[in-house]
Amino acid sequence: MNENWLHIGPLEDIPRQGARVVKTAVGEIAIFRTVDDEIFALRDKCPHKGGPLSQGIVHGKKVACPLHDWKINLDSGLAVAPDVGCAARYPVRVVDGMVSLSLAPGSAGVPAGESA
Amino acid sequence: MARMKLVLVGNGMAGMRTLEELLKSAPDLYDITVFGDEPHPNYNRIMLSPVLAGEQTVEQIILNPREWYAANGITLHTGRKIVKIDRKRRYVEADDGTRADYDRMLLATGSKPFILPVPGADLPGVVGFRDIADVDAMISASGEYKHAVVIGGGLLGLEAANGLKLRGMDVSVVHIGDWLLDRQLDEPAARLLQQNLEAKGLNFLLKKQTEALLPRRSGLARDARVTTVAIAGKPAPTPRVGAIRFKDGSEIPADLVVMAVGIRPNTALAESAGLYCNRGLVVNDTMQTYDPRIYAVGECVSHRGIAYGLVAPLFEQAKVCANHLAEHGVALYGGSMTSTKLKVTGIDLFSAGNFMGGKGHEEIVFQDVGRGSYKKLVLKDNRLAGAVLYGDTLDGAWYFELMREHTDVSDIRDKLLFGRNHLGDSGHGDEKTRIMAMPDSTEICGCNGVCKGDIVKAIHEKKLFTLDEVRAHTKASGSCGSCTGLVETILAATVGGDYSVAPSKKPLCGCTEYSHDEIRAAIVENHLKSLPETMRFMDWKTPDGCTKCRPALNYYLLCAWPTEYVDDAQSRYINERAHGNIQKDGSFSVVPRMWGGLTNPKELRAIADVAEKFNVPEMKVTGGQRIDLFGVKKEDLPAMWKDLSAAGFVSGHAYGKALRTVKTCVGAKWCRFGTQDSTGLGVKLEQLTWGSWMPHKYKLAVSGCPRNCAEATIKDFGVVCVDSGYELHVGGNGGIKVRVTDLLTKVETEEQVLQFTAAFAQLYREEAHYLERTAPWVERVGLSHIKEKVVEDEASRKALAERFLISQKPAQVDPWKERAEGGQRHEFIPIAVIPA
Ligand code: SRM
Ligand SMILES: Cc1cc2nc3c(=O)[nH]c(=O)nc-3n(C[C@H](O)[C@H](O)[C@H](O)COP(=O)(O)OP(=O)(O)OC[C@H]3O[C@@H](n4cnc5c(N)ncnc54)[C@H](O)[C@@H]3O)c2cc1C
Ligand code: SF4
Ligand code: FES
Q1: Is A80 in the pocket of ligand 4 (CB under 6 A)?
Q2: What does the DSSP assignment read for B453-466?
Q3: I need a surface site. Which of B102, B152, B185, B441 has the fewest CB within 10 A?
Q4: A12: contact with B, CB 8 A cutoff
Q5: Atom of ligand 4 nearest to the CA of A65
Q6: Over the stretch B465-519, which tens digit does the pLDDT of each residue have?
Q7: What share of chain B is helix, strand, coil (3-state, %, to 5)?
Q8: In order of start, what are the domains of chain A with their CATH numbers?
């Protein structure tokens, strides 16, 4: 697929075990950074009732939605059972400490960032 | 790398639970082989009673179907009995010659029914009550014969008798003791039980000793002692049992005899392999036998001299054992306290601990024969040592918890017998009857919209045993937790046995084996000063914790090292990280502090200006006597706080596990009834306590007289002014479950009020579990304990108050001002804006 990599900013601007929001014309996208510096991008909208996932607590490769505590897998965008639902994923990568994002949504099953 | 080989001998409840726990934490460590001598996959043995009673089918009680073993890569051999363990060459061998090598082995061979050594015990028609085969035998006998005799008036015996009666047999229960369930009940409760069961049509023969089981008399052989009739050279079939004779010479007919006089740990295999057994296969606190490669769990085991016969303790053993098999090596099993329930539909009984009392024990008894209700509590040294409940068992779980926590009950002794509902709580009625009568469509969990039917269905279909499992699968009680009691009741009623039994120790969360208290102690003793350090030191099972443990650890560290610890913002919930309440659309609310609820035109004008400037869509006077601005965009927060800060406001912490508000009333300054300056005192208290982080939200109030307009008696700490001074009340809660405060003490001066306020707050900060409000904390530790530390011991009070003041120094920095000046900027602005 032909990604258009958009420059976002330095990795260090995203707190470890945290997230930052990118505002785009297609809505807000959350970029997460895990404890061991993996990064993931999901649409900033919980599949439950639209809670802003960027505001949740990041633990392991999951984020807990701040509104009703659904856990969402960062690599797949899928809610952890028994909840069912999915937040769209976007390809994201770090090159030389700089984060870039593509707005071509990642396809289900392929971790965002690896589809390049 | 080649995986290690693990062999499980005994395909039953304890062994399989251990494997499930093991697969959760170390799915790839072993190649696993399971041997079971029953022809079935693992099933819920407890439910054999409902199966016998015709309330469930065998299919419904299977816990791990064969596909489960396959899906987890486990080799399963059913119908094969292990007859040999070769510990030198490390293999096991089954009766059909099948062999399996092992690096580690788990023995979980359960127990065997004890069969009375009387003549005739081996006749056909004499069975135990242990497995599916026994139940099949009973069910087919019930179709052909009339008279059933159950020997043994214990739990199993009564459940067997009840089932056989429901299957249409005439059932007599023979019991050697003076009353039924003599190991679980005292005599008065047992009499009530007997009456109830007699009303269901059962016969009881108490104080009877069995001498012999006699074969069936055929038409030809009238003498019962003639047992065989040879026909045409063939050996005659052994006749079936026909009667039972007692020591006193009397006889009753018996076409089916169920022996339910007790169980014996099944250690034959272990003994043949030379493993040390002493009334059970002996294990240490890690569930290891004397052979370090061999672990054991379940009813076959003797731990610190005790062999348990109920699943709750066995599941605790399973957890510990799995932890060691997974090579985490941190968990220890310290034994369990058990409680009892009888699974006979329509009969409620509960017993736990030492319910017979004895020297040095006191008893509190309530009896209402007409209503069929009986309660007995046994106290020792002001602590609950045992309980028997018959009829109304709703409070069983609560008594059990008081026993486990060794709570000093002297302050609630007068109300103890009437249950938790009568303890300063005015909310709930007779829950159990209500819950069980509710239709399936009744919503139980208001937060997650889970109905009773959903919960019951999940328990059946997913074979759930514990509250945690029900939470994980249905979400019920997973949010605010107020329906926990309801869910536990449904769980207990649905699965029958008392699974909701609290374990002897509750780990903080799934990431650790340690309890809140152990973790708090370790932080202080070992000078642990950061989250990663604590997790490493305490062998956390996950790399960076979860949403339960991270905020808790962050608080515990902050409380232990107030002047050194650097707060971990990423381990706080969004409200505390962003210093506002997140709302349903992702916007935030802003509640500036109004000291003691006082305000003036200048402040009101400043708030009005801010509201206009930032287009605040709605404002409201809160229940905490201040003003709330709703729907503020996250990006606007710092600028808005800047204006508020300039007008002299600080954060109201309406979002935090922290001091919230100090509600006050008019007081002596204006009110014709006021006895003291309640408003002024409220302001002083708020200035003392604002900014403090707490285990949970924390609210104060000061009322100027006993009319109590500030509702001080439902606050965490409430002051009621009286002519001669100040009454101090603690542990109130106006939220989900209303609890009225307990009176802590009465003091005479404002200085004393301030000191007691600080001391009580600090004790709560240092001792409560994270997310435990003062109300449940006071109930858990007992008011006496708090009085001891805060009222009776002056030195302790002073030290506590002093520690509070030290913690307050770094805490009383306005977080809004810091952020208005640029702190944590990344929290409030997007990292990038990409135009269309
Ligand atoms: C704003 C306010 C309602 C109002 O308009 O009056 C309020 C609003 C919320 N309350 Fe409350 N409570 C408010 C006074 C109360 C009171 C009354 C009081 O304090 O006198 C109570 C009962 C008294 C008590 O706590 O004992 C109260 C008992 C609760 C509870 C139940 C607590 C409990 O222990 O059972 C919760 C849930 C929780 O904390 O887990 C809660 C939780 C909430 C939350 C924070 C829900 C949430 O997590 O998002 C609400 C935020 C709404 C929002 O979008 O901003 N609120 N809440 C009040 C703020 C007071 C203030 O000035 O800070
Ligand atoms: C009718 C009934 C009702 C009960 N009700 C309750 C209740 O309400 N609440 C409660 O807490 N507990 C109850 N229990 C007790 C509970 O079922 C047991 O505590 C629990 O099943 C014990 O688990 P275990 O794994 O130690 O033994 P088991 O579940 O008995 O498993 C042991 C397995 O090992 C097999 N085995 C033994 N030796 C060998 C060998 N050499 N080779 C291969 N396989 C072997 C056995 O056949 C058996 O399948 C009840 C028990 C019964 C029988
Ligand atoms: S403000 Fe309080 S009572 Fe009202 S909806 Fe929110 S949590 Fe419930
Ligand atoms: S909106 Fe995310 S859990 Fe409800």
Answers
A1: no
A2: HHHHHHHHHHT--S
A3: B441
A4: no
A5: 2
A6: 778 788 888 878 776 666 777 788 788 777 755 444 445 567 899 899 899 999 9
A7: 35, 20, 45
A8: 5-102 (2.102.10.10)
